[in-house]
Inverse folding.
């Protein structure tokens, strides 16, 4: 491990401490990205929030029991507390509380206990307690390479579990009823997912802190979901996104001597917002453009079908000018040019074909089941089916 | 007034303000939204300090309310894209806003006597030393501010009781009779923000969240009537305030945290009480069988 950090440091031109932070952040990012995906896709992101908050009393109790700040021991404490919180959340929901209230009660109960323990330890004058506060907001500085090795070890086991159990996980995630019918023990798999979530939180809580850890669980999946649709692709991309966010945020925070958690979270949320806005074929901006295109198109078609109608809006006037510039309307703006007339004929042809499809499409002898594109029926059906459709429409029209 | 009495009164006022709103948040499935809003208040406080260099209650409340609304609007906008589920939207927005607040404090706000820890669990022990004079009597500033907030929350409930009840239990019906559930939602969020920010300096983010959710959830287990629910959650909050203060003195720990812990203990007790028959039936099957059948 030490040899690896040295050579990596030489390669990147970074001092030893930065390399340790970088490695830790990458481990954190990959594990929280991949393991958090299951919580996000099940719409249980905020369960992750409650589990992260709940690790605090675990860390404090482990410290009280062990009397020293050794990282593996604290992580075991965090894991036990996280699991207890997960169990209690299910229990509180069984009492008939709304799900979000159940999460809220467990979250605040555990966190209050954590704060009481933390302040109790601080008041007890134990000289070794100084760094425990880091578990609130996260601190990458002071991370040891042995801590990173522990994190990487736990993370590798969890990721291997995901790879081995991927079929069971996928089935339970998307269709629990079907999974149960296949003979899968769905409850068991769901418990497994929660355990994986706890593992992700435990790995991350030292770096990002109990309060903000939830963002690291959610951001990578939100980013990945904007680009790919298949689960294994989402998992891989989420791992990569998590690693990038972790590395950039942790290095920036250590350089600027800021708490690591907030910087990592801001980097991550920025990336998520960029992905939600700009993702090709899916993002908010692409959606808005597609909507605007459809609106323009339907305004254009309305104007061409009835060019003498008075303009009802600024949009109408603007579209009329554009149509004139494209040579579809004459210079007076209300008579069709020959090309415009051609366009209108095409349009009415398309519309009558579409009505024919709606009325008679079910009788077509198609080689496969398909849903044609309303704007391009001819293209999506093919010439043969189109001929059939025309004949059907003609005979039906004749007999009526 | 002794310092301890002032601390308990301030905590009790916080509990009252939160207990009035909490039941509606729980019933409207807004518990975690209120959690998000209480966190989003922090950048409001910090930015008011950065812009105007003041911690006077009114501008701070306005700044915090602005950020609370921003938080809710951002969550709604993310949800409206259809690309992010609502739970993930909450989990993106409030950590981002809270991070901004935390960075603002560590970076620029050495002048604010707000340190990172006090944003989490407050500095209620210092409340008695920050006094203002009202009509010639020295009163703790936080107590005065919180008393005003309690009155505002009370007025909100008194004036809009019918509307709040209707929109809480039957949003569809209430929108057909033009009660505007969405508007009431926003109003409730703003009330939560105002309550959170006024309580924030005294008791910190976590106690606000705890006081909003836990007492209401406790009362929710014990009653089905809304007025009893509201009264009960205020009562549990007061138990938490008094008991938590004792606990904190005994263990030399955070007062705010201990108060939250006592509230949680009340919740656990309520679970046991509301489930006593079931628990008895499992522990002592032969004894309790007769009672359950009769």
């Amino acid at each position: 491990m030490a040899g690896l950090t040295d050579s990596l440091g030489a390669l990147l031109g970074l001092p030893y401490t930065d390399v340790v932070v970088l490695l830790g952040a990458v481990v954190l990012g990959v594990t929280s990205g991949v393991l958090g995906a299951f919580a996000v896709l099940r719409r249980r992101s905020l369960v992750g929030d409650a589990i992260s908050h709940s690790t605090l009393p675990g860390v404090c109790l482990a410290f009280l029991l062990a009397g020293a700040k050794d990282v593996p021991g604290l992580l075991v404490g965090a894991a036990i507390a996280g699991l207890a919180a997960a169990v209690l959340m299910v229990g509180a929901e069984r009492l008939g509380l709304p799900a979000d209230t159940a999460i809220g009660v467990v979250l605040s109960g555990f966190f209050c206990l954590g704060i009481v323990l933390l302040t109790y330890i601080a008041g007890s004058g134990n000289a070794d307690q100084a760094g425990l506060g880091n578990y609130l907001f996260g601190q990458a500085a002071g991370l040891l390479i042995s801590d990173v090795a522990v994190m990487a070890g736990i993370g590798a086991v969890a990721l291997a579990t995901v790879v081995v159990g991927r079929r069971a996980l996928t089935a339970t995630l998307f269709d629990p009823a079907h999974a149960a019918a296949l003979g899968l023990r769905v409850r068991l798999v769901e418990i497994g997912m929660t355990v994986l979530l706890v593992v992700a939180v435990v790995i991350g809580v030292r770096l990002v802190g109990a309060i903000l850890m939830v963002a690291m669980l959610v951001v990578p999946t939100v980013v990945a979901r904007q680009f790919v649709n298949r689960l294994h692709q989402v998992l891989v991309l989420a791992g990569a996104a998590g690693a990038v966010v972790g590395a950039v945020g942790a290095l920036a925070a250590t350089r600027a001597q800021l708490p690591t958690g907030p910087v990592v979270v801001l980097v991550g949320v920025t990336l998520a917002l960029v992905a939600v806005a700009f993702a090709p074929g899916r993002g908010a901006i692409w959606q808005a453009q597609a909507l605007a295109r459809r609106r323009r198109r339907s305004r254009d078609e309305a104007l061409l079908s009835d060019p003498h109608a008075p303009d009802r809006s600024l949009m109408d006037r603007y579209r009329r000018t554009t149509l004139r510039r494209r040579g579809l309307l004459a210079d007076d703006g209300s008579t069709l040019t020959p090309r415009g007339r051609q366009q209108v004929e095409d349009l009415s042809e398309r519309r009558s074909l579409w009505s024919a499809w709606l009325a008679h499409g079910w009788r077509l002898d198609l080689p496969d089941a398909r849903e044609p594109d309303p704007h391009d029926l001819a293209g999506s059906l093919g010439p043969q089916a189109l001929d059939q459709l025309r004949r059907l429409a003609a005979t039906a029209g004749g007999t009526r | 007034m002794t310092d301890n009495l002032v601390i308990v009164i301030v905590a009790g006022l916080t509990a009252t303000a939160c207990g009035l709103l909490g039941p509606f948040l729980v019933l409207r499935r807004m518990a975690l939204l209120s959690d998000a809003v209480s966190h989003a208040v922090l950048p409001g406080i910090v930015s008011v300090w950065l812009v105007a260099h003041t911690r006077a209650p009114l501008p701070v409340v306005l700044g915090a309310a602005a950020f609370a609304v921003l938080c809710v609007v951002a969550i709604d906008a993310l949800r409206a894209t259809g690309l992010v589920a609502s739970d993930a939207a909450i989990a993106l927005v409030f950590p981002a806003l809270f991070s901004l607040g935390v960075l603002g404090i560590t970076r620029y706000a050495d002048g604010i006597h707000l340190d990172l820890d006090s944003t989490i669990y407050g500095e209620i022990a210092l409340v008695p030393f920050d006094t203002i004079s009202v009509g010639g009597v020295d009163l703790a500033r936080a107590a005065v501010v919180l008393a005003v907030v309690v009155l505002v929350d009370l007025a909100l409930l008194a004036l809009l009781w019918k509307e709040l009840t209707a929109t809480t239990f039957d949003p569809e019906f209430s929108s057909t009779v033009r009660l505007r559930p969405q508007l009431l939602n926003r109003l409730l969020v703003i009330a939560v923000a105002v309550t959170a920010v006024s309580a924030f300096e005294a008791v910190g983010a976590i106690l606000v969240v705890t006081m909003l959710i836990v007492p209401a959830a406790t009362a929710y287990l014990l009653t089905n009537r809304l007025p009893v629910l509201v009264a009960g959650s205020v009562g549990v909050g007061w138990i938490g305030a008094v008991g938590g203060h004792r606990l904190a003195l005994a263990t030399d720990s955070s007062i705010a945290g201990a108060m939250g812990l006592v509230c949680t203990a009340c919740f656990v007790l309520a679970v046991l009480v509301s489930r006593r028959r079931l628990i008895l039936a499992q522990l002592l099957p032969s004894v309790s069988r007769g009672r359950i059948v009769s």
User: Anything to note?
Assistant: Residues 16-41 of chain A form the longest helix (26 residues).
